[in-house]
Specification:
The protein has 301 residues and is of the alpha/beta class. It is 35% helix and 20% strand. The chain has nine helices and twelve strands. Helix 1 packs across helix 2 (88-96), helix 5 crosses helix 7 and helix 7 crosses helix 8. The N and C termini lie close together (9 Å).
Length: 301
């Protein structure tokens, strides 16, 4: 049995899969706010209660924002800042009394979609998370490429490409830099754009719903968002030229986000034509936790 855990900023989810990739159990709890020890306990409790209910133990893989530093062994680059500077994998292994495998949440998302999701059958899959943060994962021949510094796929912390004068300074990112792609394409970035245009406070979900319902100001914000997304993906295309790009996260659920998106990418990409499909994730918000489970091969002990 393979157990996956998705340790997010607002929720922790566990899934148990059998050897045929069928879901045996899935549940979630809120993430304790900014409390490392309580977060460790919540993860361990979810895993152990799942095993007790199913009557057997399993391998455990964990998806989390950020990554384990190859230099220090501590979590780095997590927007769940309580995890940064902590030996999360070792602490979870101690609580669960077994080795675990831990990987960036966008990498787990990409792995799930590459194995049997929207990117199945493609050799090079770039998975994109558009939500509270902006993440990316790269899978080649069904294998994750995390990189020697554990930052492969982190397109969200590059500057917004081909920025206009009004975009150039940009907002401050949690990473300490300004003008990162994440500050424009995260949910907070969309909300910031809407407030700048209308003077009103709304969250990304409300803006997306209004845009889909025909609200013109909300639609203009999403159109601006789509243009920034296209420019940012063009920069990825120039570097990786993947066979497919799979979009996940809450903002990937905006239906007309996909309208004309490949053509907009092609305007900026260094090619006379771009045929790369840009598609929505097949497994939705289950992809990250499923990919975490598959950090261990089927049948591993």
């Amino acid at each position: 049995m393979q157990i996956g855990v998705d340790l997010g900023g607002t929720k922790i989810e566990v899934i148990a899969l059998d050897d045929d990739r069928r879901t045996l159990l899935r549940r979630r709890v809120p993430t304790p706010a900014a409390d490392y020890d309580r977060t460790l306990n919540a993860v361990a409790d979810l895993v152990l209660s799942a095993e007790k209910e199913l009557g057997k133990a399993g391998t455990v893989g964990v998806a989390t924002p950020g990554a384990i530093s190859a230099k220090t062994g501590m979590v780095m680059n997590s927007n769940s800042t309580a995890l940064n500077g902590r030996p999360l994998d070792l602490d979870l292994s101690s609580r669960l009394a077994r080795p675990i495998r831990l990987e960036n949440d966008a990498n787990c998302f990409a792995l799930s979609e590459a194995i049997d999701g929207a990117g199945a059958g493609a050799r090079v899959v770039f998975g994109v998370i558009l939500g509270t943060g902006v993440g990316g994962g790269l899978v080649i021949d069904r294998q994750l490429l995390a990189g020697c510094n554990r930052i492969a796929g982190e397109w969200g912390h590059n500057p917004l490409p081909w920025a206009s004068d009004s975009e150039r300074l940009g907002a401050l990112c949690y990473c300490g830099k300004t003008g990162c792609v994440e500050t424009f394409l995260s949910g907070a970035g969309l909300a910031r754009e809407y407030r700048a245009r209308t003077g009103r406070l709304s969250n990304a979900e409300e803006i997306a719903l209004a845009a889909s319902g025909g609200n013109e100001q909300a639609r203009e914000c999403v159109i601006a968002y789509r243009d920034r997304l296209a420019r940012s993906l063009a920069a990825v295309m120039n570097l990786l030229d993947p066979d497919v790009i799979v979009l996940g996260g809450g903002l990937s659920n905006i239906p007309f986000l996909y309208d004309g998106l490949p053509a907009l990418v092609a305007v900026h990409a260094f090619s006379e034509s771009i045929d790369t499909p840009i598609v929505q994730a097949m497994h939705g918000d289950s992809s990250g936790v499923r990919g975490a489970a598959w950090l261990w091969p089927m049948g591993a002990k």
